[in-house]
Amino acid sequence: MKIYNNLNLNKKFKNSVIAIGNFDGIHLGHQKVLKQAKQKAKINKIPLGLISFEPMPVMFFNQKIKNHRINSLEQKKKQLKILKLNFILLIKFNKKFSFISADKFIKKIIFEKLRSKYVFVSKNFKFGKNRKGNINTLKKFQNTYGYKTIITPPLKKAKKIISSTLIRKKIQLGKITEANKLLNRPWSIEGKVIKGSKRGRKIGFPTCNIKLNDYIIPKLGVYSVMVKIGQIKKKGIANIGYRPTFNGQNLLLEVNIFGINKNLYNKIIKVSFIRFIRPEKRFKRLEQLKKQIKIDINLAKKNV
Fold this sequence. Notes:
By secondary structure, the protein is α/β, with parallel strands linked by helices. The chain contains 10 helices and 14 strands. The chain folds into 2 domains: 2-160, HUPs (Rossmann fold, 3-Layer(aba) Sandwich), CATH 3.40.50; 186-303, Elongation Factor Tu (Ef-tu), domain 3 (Beta Barrel).
């Protein structure tokens, strides 16, 4: 899979099937769309590509939105690679790009740069300056520029449309098992292990600390997790919160990995959330905290 950060695509990727959108999470709904697009590409013997935007437009227009992403950009790339796309075009969403009209986007990118044959979008797809472009705009120009617009119907589960918005809500409410079903895999956070206060080590439960960056913030509390360090996978327990027992000020993900007791500073680890165990809680005495952690660990070992 080839990844482009500019519009200078290889000629072999022209005359392709294109899916356009944020695709945050690459959830079951996204997977359905991309499978349909892949089938269309296979039948017509042409490449399959995806156009997405970085940063996500909602985060560009509202600088106050910091924790919004289900997946990091790197995770999105990995998921798309698994789905065997031929290429991804990541358009830098900046002030200049935000002023491009919907008509110009179709002419300059879909037609001139890609010569797209099929364009897959969701029913609610909006694009162009002031989000004035929609599926009717795409259909209006399809004969002019030689492509066909394909509107993908939403995928439903339990009578609810599967969407990135719904999954974010599930994660924020701590309904991690439900979110995982909609993603078709455990929701995970990847990040570099940073140095902490070493309080966990001092009380007998060493942890790896990771910043959340732009990830959506899940319900604060304790989770059973699976941790991947390189090719090694281990069960673990994670706490996400402010560490109220120690009067913590910064939001942090702390992970105690079962069976590993070594320095992992600066290592990239992947923490997959399996089940919510309990909300974050302040303990009056350290012994109470230690006792609760032992209970949490026993639950986590059973749940993972």
